[in-house]
Amino acid sequence: MCYDDNARPPVPDGADGQAQGEDLVLTAADGNRFAAYFARPAAPTGAQVIIYPDVRGLHQFYKELALRFADIGIAAIALDYFGRTAGLTARDDSFEFWPHVQQLKLENFFLDVRAALDYLRSHASAEGATFPVGFCMGGSLTILSGSDRSFGFAGLIAFYAGLSRPIAGNGTALEHADQLVYPLLGLFGGADQGIPVSQVHELEEKLRQRGLEHQIHIYEGAPHSFFDRRYSEYAEACADAWQRVRDFIAAHSHSR
């Protein structure tokens, strides 16, 4: 599990605190109803993100993360993975996520992504640069969805993406890395026991061979899930991660 119920995303510099958020129930093309959360900025920049959570799906950390993005002018929608198997039930610490993770299929996830993107593009910006932002399993899914040109992403942002575990019945993130068609920003903890630095370097090499624009940064001494404002010892890494995300979004929004 990436984040427990007490985890909270760091607050980015300059956040205005004026964003408004709302819980949603969206419907995918196959009829699946799933939970999502939309955060609308008071002063939109035109850029927007779709947030892929960790293995627990849409819980409070990601709703607050959507608000933090919106506080800096970036519209955000976060989606849940488990509408087909767990319905619209809560995703707090009591949620037994693993049986639902095992049933997750990439083609179904992509249907949900398209429904969330449709909502985002009709309620924020139809033409705005759009970036998936994924954490842990969501980081892996960011890489897996990065080979589909039809999503029209401007770039991919992955925090501590699991690289070697098969995801959604469709291989590993490392196996898909040489199929990416969008620039990638990857952020990793150097002390992450589940993602060896050697695997991160392997990811970099695959992207280099692919000729794909990428930025990979490893925070020395930082563990998995370091992006959490409870941990003052990682405050500098969190601030740097926010700045890298903002710079990446700005650079790839302006180039469109």
From TrEMBL:
This is Dienelactone hydrolase domain-containing protein. It comes from Thermogemmatispora tikiterensis. Residues 34-252 form the Dienelactone hydrolase domain. Pfam families: DLH. One of its GO terms (molecular function) is hydrolase activity. PANTHER family: ALPHA_BETA-HYDROLASES SUPERFAMILY PROTEIN, CARBOXYMETHYLENEBUTENOLIDASE-RELATED. InterPro entries: AB_hydrolase_fold, Dienelactn_hydro, Dienelactone_hydrolase-like.
